[in-house]
Amino acid sequence: MKQLVHRICKDLLTTKNEAEVIAARLLNCSKHELYFHTVRDSHLQHKLKSQLAQLKNGKPIEYVTRTTSFLDLDLNILPGVFIPRLETEFLIEIVKNKMVDAPRKILEIGTGTGAISIALARIFAECMIIANDISERALQCAHINIKKYELEKRIMLCRADRFSGIKGSYDLIISNPPYISQERLNRLPKSVRDFEPIIALDGGFNGIEIIAAIILNGYEMINEQGNIALEIDDHQVGLIRDLLILNKINNYIFLKDLFGRFRYLYISKKII
């Protein structure tokens, strides 16, 4: 294993600690177990060599191992499906802390791996969730994860673009929507730009095209006690506030992430 860690350090220009984390993920073991592993099997050696080559080319480790984590969830992920981020975990915490009454009916726009819906279903034991996505591959991935956590009876997947075909009234509408402006797309890191789905990133000219659609359509679909929770870009606060004021949506709050940046929008039909 020392050779593998050394190879990762050299090829990927990482620290030893980072290399150990990568090696442990490739071998599906803990860092503590890492040095008790021996790789004598030729098939495994070939697999590790191939995986290292992919990582060296900038491919995210989540796509290489086809696994990712979100809160306490261990999820499967397929290449071409958006990788859940640490920032989105805090969106779940916001919902958990802000909602006085546990939501019974939830709509998630753009579910990806299903991470948000699965996390909410495990927190709010009585809720039913509709989770949609325009990507068939994302829905395939979400189905695998929902089945893994035995939530098929409580999370219904549907292929749809935003609110297309969606009916009913909801206690909560939640989304981590595409919010990267077109000007910023080309400046994203190679690992994001070249490998993650553009449809999950592109928020239109100024980045709030889909956010605006979710706010305006979603506000009509939440009930009298309903809420909307969104992840946003901290540069978009002014544009979003103008949109809310223009449409006479008064009960909202922007919330900061762990780095002090305004990354979340929480809207309610009741006073926050």
From TrEMBL:
SUPFAM superfamilies: S-adenosyl-L-methionine-dependent methyltransferases. Keywords: Methyltransferase, S-adenosyl-L-methionine, Transferase. PANTHER family: HEMK METHYLTRANSFERASE, MTRF1L RELEASE FACTOR GLUTAMINE METHYLTRANSFERASE. It catalyses: L-glutaminyl-[peptide chain release factor] + S-adenosyl-L-methionine = N(5)-methyl-L-glutaminyl-[peptide chain release factor] + S-adenosyl-L-homocysteine + H(+). The keyword Transferase applies. One of its GO terms (molecular function) is peptide chain release factor N(5)-glutamine methyltransferase activity. Residues 88-183 form the Methyltransferase small domain. It comes from candidate division WOR-3 bacterium RBG_13_43_14. Coiled coil: none annotated. InterPro entries: DNA_methylase_N6_adenine_CS (IPR002052), HemK-like (IPR004556), N5-glutamine_MTase (IPR050320), RF_methyltr_PrmC (IPR019874), SAM-dependent_MTases_sf (IPR029063), Small_mtfrase_dom (IPR007848). CDD domains: AdoMet_MTases. PROSITE patterns: N6_MTASE. This is peptide chain release factor N(5)-glutamine methyltransferase. GO terms for biological process: methylation. Its EC number is 2.1.1.297. It is an enzyme of class 2 (transferase).
